Every structure is written in C-alpha cells, then in structure tokens.
Records
---
Amino acid sequence: MSSKISRLMRIVNLIQNSPGIKATELAKICEVSERSIYRDLIAISEAGIPVTSNEGRGNGYTFASNFAMYPLDWTPEEAMAFSLLPGVVKQNLIQTDPHFQTAYEKIMATYNKEQRNQQQNISKLVALIQSGKPQNKVETSNKFLLPIAESMVKNQTLKVKYETKSRDDINDRFIDPYYLIPRESKFYLLAYCHKREDFRTFRLSRFLKVEATNRIFTKRQLDLQKYYQNTWSIIKGDKEIHFKVLFNKNVARYVMEKELFATPKLTKYEDGSLLFEITLNHDEEFLKWVRQYGPDAEIIEPVEYREILQEELRKWAEIYKN
C-alpha cells in the first residue's frame, strides 16, 4: 500500500512539473504498466485531484483549474542525492539514481508552479498599484515597477542609471532591491547600493534605466521599522532633533487624525490646543509639513528653528512689503 501511495504522489508531481505528460511516459518513469497508470489516474481523480486529459485516453494529462500540490518533505536519501548534484551531473548518473530523480521532480514541480504564480501575482500587484494612483500624478517611471518587483521576488541584482538631483549627476549603479515604499503619490525603492556599500533610498522617477542582471543576492538582515526609526517620511539623516510644536485649536483635530510615519507624543490642553513632540533624524520634510499650518503652528523647541522661521518670515515680509 505504501509503495502505491508513493507512486500516486509521484504521478501528481510529474503531471504538475510536466503538463501534457502521457501515460506511456508515466509508466516508464514509475516502472509499471500503462494499465496500472490508468488505474492510478482514476484513483487520483476520485481523491478530488482534478487530473484531466483534453483529448481522452492515450493523450497527455494536466490539472484542471489552479490545482497545485507542494512536495513532500525530502527523505534523507533524497537530500543526500541532491547535495551531490554536481557530481551526479558530471558522471551522468541522473537516470540511475532514483533518489535524485524523485527529489528533482518535487523541486521542479513546485518551482514551476511558484514561478507562474509569482509572475501572475506580481503583474496583478503592479496593475493594482498603478490603477490606485491619480492619473495626473502617475510618474513615467512606473514602467520600472514590474522589473523591480520581479527582481525583488527573485533576489536579482539590478543595474540602474540613476539621476541624483542634489548633485545634478547621472551615474550607473548596481543595487539589490528590498522594498518598494509609497510616499505622497510617489514611489521609492529601498535597496543595497554596491557603490556606497550601504542601504540607500531611491526615487523611482529618477531611474533612467533599469535592467535585471544574472546575479542572485542573499538578503542581509534588515528591520525596516528600525531602519526608518525617527524618520519623518523618506529622507533619513543621522541627527537627533527633538521638536516641540504647539498647534492651536483650529487645526489640532486635523493633526491628531493624520496618519504619520513616526510616532509623536500628543498632549491636548483644555483650550483645545495640542502640544506635538517628536524626535527625528532629519528636519527638512518635517519643517515642510509644519509650514503648511502657517500661524496655527508654533515651533517651541529647538530654539534655533524658531530663529530659522523668523528669518524666513522676515524675507517674506520684505518681498511683500510694497
């Protein structure tokens, strides 16, 4: 009984790995008669596995719908045989090593199915991301979403041409893609940069060229939440700035409702105003956010940022003086 069950499972793996495989081929691999294969196929169908042949008896077999079976755990013999793959290939012993053959069939059956599923899921995900963005804000760089997403799943190193706005520079880089991050209708890619030998955040709209290489990288340990700890949005710095901002009652409710990337300490006062405290590693994006509230937001600390805003307001007043 156990040998028959093993044969049935092997037939399922073979069909999944090679859709359209014929009964004669199954019989040869399993070392049984074609009649036994037909009986096995009936038993497989009765077990609820949708095996089918579109043209009837004697033709190739496949699975109906999206059925897929993942492989059984390796036996010690299969694991040993697979670990000897280079030697097996060189000595042309594949056909004479049954443990290697069954292990290979299981791996390839799963791999082929996962590859098809991954491609479909990636395409759906990219389509969903693109359809969710307002049409007037869709960046032309969205054409790179699919190859980047594929390389993230496959752990493939990318060769990119990237434009650095701050230095007005265009350069070629090799990067290992880790995460796609949406921020304010824009997309950013967190990747390991081989040139800088560290993680960097890239804006997709600044990619001029993206192509996958044959190099497979091993992912480094990266805690995304820890990496962006004390980061207001996407610009990551190396400072430690503790801001205190007092929002008046006119905007306090909106500030409390806003979904933020960093976690602030909020203290609400009886008059309806709100004290907003947060520690950040960079100031640019946070100051831009505070400025939008105008006189409804007052920076209390650090004092030097009060002076920075005073100077900005002085320049504005000078511009509109006349």
---
Amino acid sequence: MRLDRGITSVIIGIAITFGQPEIAVTLTAQDVSNIAKQITVVISGPKLGSGVIIHQQGDTYSVLTNGHVVDEAGTYTVQTRDRSTYEVKSNLVQRLPGVDLAVLKFTSSKKYNIATIGNSDAATEGTTVYVSGAPEPVQGIEARTVLVLRGEIVGTNSQPQEGYVLIYNNNTHRGMSGGPVLDENGHLIGIHGRGARDNDGQKVGFNLGIPIKIFTASKTGSNLGVTTQNPPITQVPPKSFTDPSSSVPLIGRPRTIDGSEGTAGFGCPGRRC
C-alpha cells in the first residue's frame, strides 16, 4: 500500500508540473533595447530615416519604414546592426496606398534578426513602449547612432491620417521616422513617424505611430506572410550580448528630410519627425 501511495504521489506531481502555465519572463529596458538594436536599420540617401527588418526569404530581407522616408527618387542605403550597407533603388520600393508605410528589400547571405510581430490592439493607455531609430546628427552627437527611447502610450488618435493612430510620449527626433515601436516584451507593435506640433511648429511632447495591425492586414503584409499573432514572451538575451553600435558610428550625414524645415524657421511643418 505504501508503494501504491508513493507512485500515486509521483503521478500527481507530474500532472501538476505539466498542467502549470509557463511563467512569463519579464524583460528589462536593456533587454528590449538589445532586441531593438538587432532589428533596426539606418536608412540614408535622398532622405534620412530608420526602419525595421520584418521578413526573410532566402537571402532577401524586407524592411518596413515610412513612405515619406523613401519617397524621393534616387539610391538609398540600408545599414544593418553589423555596419554592413546595402543599396536599394527608389523604383524598387513598394509603398502602401493610403498609409505612410513602405517596404524595401535588400539581399545578403548574412544572418539578421527578424522582428517578432506583436498585438498592437493591446497597446492601450499606460502601456510601456520603446521607439528605436537613428536621429540625424546634432551638436554633441555628430554620428548617427541607434537610440532606443522609453515611454508609454498616452492615447489614440480619434481622427488618424495616413494610419497614425498610436500616441505616445517617447522623446523622438528627426531621422527616427520609420523605426520600430516595441512593447515591453520586445515585440513590434507599430512604426514611428510623426511628432505632434502646435500652430507655431513647435513639438508638444507627443509623437505618433502606425499600428502594425494596419500593415499585417494589408495586401503587402499578407503577400509577405507577415501576420498579427500572440507571440510568446521573449526570453532574456544572454548577458554576454554586445551591441556593435556602442562604439562605431553609423553612416549618414546631416540633411534636410521631409518636413524638417518650414516657414519662419520652424521645423517639421508636415509633422514628420
């Protein structure tokens, strides 16, 4: 009888172990920053901006960015986390109708991380978000460097234009347009692209992004096989992770981009950021 009871206890213990849900891993701000820097690219050319790697098929990678970042004719350069550069002709850029998004592709035999698509519907007021991108050079920061800025969702736009629904208080700067908006699990929930401004053209402290759901629901997103899902909690990256952006400057040069100069000296009249 004692043996039977012992076996029963073992069976119950195993059942409890397999029946318990997986414990979610909470990422630190540094963890999310490391994830962001792996998937963020720096875009240079007729205009400057940022982007995020969203898909890979063979040696072809797809980058999602803002339409206004790549809407001028010419050759654009995509720079990845390892400082490799890839040229993309503007006539090969695919722009989405009715929304400020575009997809450009580059070919490489190297292995790059792909963004994990999150649930932008869960980005409600108070949700922590991170915006990643490489601002244009300014005094004191002469080379473009990928920055990951933390903030939170403060609301949604009741009358969105070109897809700009998300409103957050992250302190973004010109050159970060097209960069990813990540949730606290490091999942892609939006694309950053605008800074709200008053009638004098001054930033008011709020910025806007396009929910990733708009892209995944589009024909372009469907053709790439990029879909909205409920991804698992991202595991904490190894402590040995090193980010090459910490010491090596990025390519790029100071340049006026869409909306970066306006009348009477005020910036971003088109509310680009």
---
Amino acid sequence: MRAGETKVAVTGLGVVAPNGLGTDSYWDATRKGTSGIGAVSRFDAEGYPARLAGEIHDFEAERHLPGRLLPQTDRMTQLALVAADWAFQDAAVTPGELSEYQMGVITASSSGGFEFGQRELKALWSKGGRYVSAYQSFAWFYAVNSGQISIRNGMRGPSGVVVSDQAGGLDAIAQARRQIRKGTRLVLSGAVDASICPWGWVAQMTSNRLSTSRDPRRAYLPFDDSAHGHVPGEGGALLVLEDLEEARARGARQIYGEIRGYGATMDPRPGSGRPPGLRKSIELALADARMAPGDIDVVFADAAAVPELDRTESEALSAVFGERGVPVTVPKTMTGRLYSGAAPLDLAAAFLSLRDGVIPPSIAVEPSARHGLDLVVGEERPARLRSALVLARGHGGFNSALVVSAA
C-alpha cells in the first residue's frame, strides 16, 4: 500500500457452500474435513461422463426470500441474495440506513442463471413463445446477481460484474477495493455461481477438465499423482468491504482483516514459448502489498487437478517461496470448484484461518513428491497466521492473486 492510500477491510461474510450454509456451518465443516461432494441430484446425470458435484442440499429459498422474488430469480441469484443478507448481518450493517449512492455491489459470474434459462428455453421449444416468462429477459444474465442485490438493498453506488471464470471472484474483490479507495463507503463483493443443470453441465464439460470418477472421495485430487480433473460445485461467498478506519469508527462488530495486495495476468498464447503468468500475478500481488514472500503464512491454491496445470502452479509457488517454503491448502476439495464463487469462498476461509490460527485441510489428496509442496492434508494444522495468499485461475488463461492480512 502506498502512503496515504486507504486501508480496505472486510467486516462481513456471507457463505453458501456445499458443505455448509452460513459462515459458521461452513467453517465448522471445513475445519473437520467434511465433504459436500456426491452424486448429482439436481438432474439425471447417468447419461453424462461426469456425475459428481458439490451441491447445496438444504437450501429452501422460500424460507429466506419474499415470494415475489422466487418466480423471477434463478437458483444462483436466490443463493446470492441470501448470502448478501447474511454478509450484512455479519457486518452489523443495515443498508437502508446508509446513503444509497455510498454503497456499491461488484460481483463476478461464470455462467449466469443457466437453470432458469434452460427451463424457459424448454418452454419455448415445447409450447411456444407465449409460455416463456418475461423474467427470462434478465434472470439468465451474468450480471443479474449484482442487479438484484442492489435493487433489494437500495444500493446505487459504483457497481458491476466481472467475467473471468474462476479468477473472477478475486478480480471483483480488487475492483471493490478500488472503489473504496475512491471514496465509496461500502461495497459488497465476491461471487456465487450455480449451474448444475443439463445446459450448464454440457457447457462445463467442454473444458475437458471435469473428473469422471464415480468415487466422491477420489474424484478431485489436486497435486496428487492420480489427478484427473475437478468436480464442479455451486455456491460461493459475498464479503462486505469498508474503509478500515471508518469501520473502526462506526464500531464494526469484527474486522476479519485487510485486502492488502492484488495481481492479475493472462497466460501467453499456447506454443509461444513464453512462461505461464501465474508466478507474475503472485509477484504483482506481493509488490502491491509491499510484502516479501517470507511474510506469507499460508497459500490457498487454485488447484485445478489437471496434471499440467498443477505442475504450473507448484512451479510458480516453488519459484516464489522456495521448495516447501509455505504451507498450501485446498479446502475446495470439500466443495468442488465453484467457478466464480470458488475464490471468494477461499478468501472467506483465509480470513477465518487468520482469526482462529488454523489452516484447514485438503481432504483425500495424497500429495505427489514431484510437486514439492507443503500441502496440509488429513486434518487442520494449528499455525500462527498473519497473512495469506489466495490464488485463482480461469479457463482461457486468467490468473489472479490476492494477499490478505489480519487487521
């Protein structure tokens, strides 16, 4: 951080995850190594090569949202609206009591409301245009979460959406930090994705990165010699960001920590002979935070579970931190990769790790010696933690890195 720059704090977390609804439930399950991965139940996946997912099973939208919102929103948006409510409650913030132009919403999205869109397209094909909901005009849209959250909470300040696949969640947080530094009082940021439906499933399968394992315990194995793709999931996290000093002045109930540094790069064109961009994004984030590699106490890895991509990540980490130079963890092994929602969920876990002095485990993984990582496996590891690095990569070459620290 440069002299005079605003320190940006996180004061509220709203979590919706396959292994826990709500921050406390998610964190308790994650510390215990409880997985939310299982057979797909939201549609009949028997005809598809990939049949496992990290699904949220105990979410009933009608228990949390007014009935008028249900017919006009996709499952993704319903989850996001509830996560937003929980984040505000956690931050002890009532949006209606703040100036509407001093609150913004910046989210990320990987797909949009695919389940809603599929349902309406089915009606179009089978019955005709008169049977397509008018809400289809926006419910499928990748920017809909930002829009619905801002409408529900009267937030008319700087807002938007970032689309960079798995990296998008960190990119959105970085955009939010930028707006806080420009003077916006509060920004809700992060991401929630949910596209476990045939249309979304086929789209995800085009990456050729989905695990086809039938065994939930051995399906998503990053940095393991048996790595063979990832398990998709649904959910994510939304975070309340504020100016650190203003948060303290208003008597914020808790300050989870600071957003200290951010770096983003794009991978070079395949076959160019130039190195991947992940290492550079880490170095940019550290430079932005004015921190050295030795200041980082834990890394929350992207963990693609594709052999070549795992090798790229482990090489980047070894180049920056030295071989086995910093503990690495992958709590996503309990949820699957949640696309744009994955990195904000890792970010929430990072702040909770800093608070409680523990590193959550990566489950089921048998670390390969060839990666040379100090991977935390089996059970949580107590540790003195002040700073963490969260990594995310999106399909197509996006790389993002975010450094956070205790306040």
